[in-house]
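Comment thread on ticket #2218

A.B. wrote:
> Attaching the input chain for the structure job we discussed in standup.
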Amino acid sequence: MHEMSIATAVVEQVDAAARRHGADAVARVRLQIGELAGVVPAALDFCFELACAGTLVAGAVLETEAVPARARCEPCAVEWAVGMPPDLGCPHCAGGRVELLAGRELQILGVEWAGRPPGAGTGAGQEG
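C.D. wrote:
> Ran it. Output below, let me know if you need it in another format.
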């Protein structure tokens, strides 16, 4: 299950950022996950909760944004939803040169601090 290694890497990065910014805790972590990234959202949620134990990220909400897979045929420029399992054959000309435009993303979109960093105004801070 590679979701645990993904969750651990996310928590380590967010925990380090929270410490750099002097945050007391993290309220929310937003991730973008492509349809073809091979990540099972329910498994990632479970692993995220486990990986957060003993860090400033403990108790944070994990929000994920799914990115549908899209491709473009280089010869005819038609774009289409790839779907799962992926269909990488052009629906228009059956061309073989296909560019994957979206669907492999796996990135942190934003972080919301739960505690106020030193020198910050009122309300929760955000790193994006």
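A.B. wrote:
> Thanks. Noting for the ticket: The chain has a mean pLDDT of 89.
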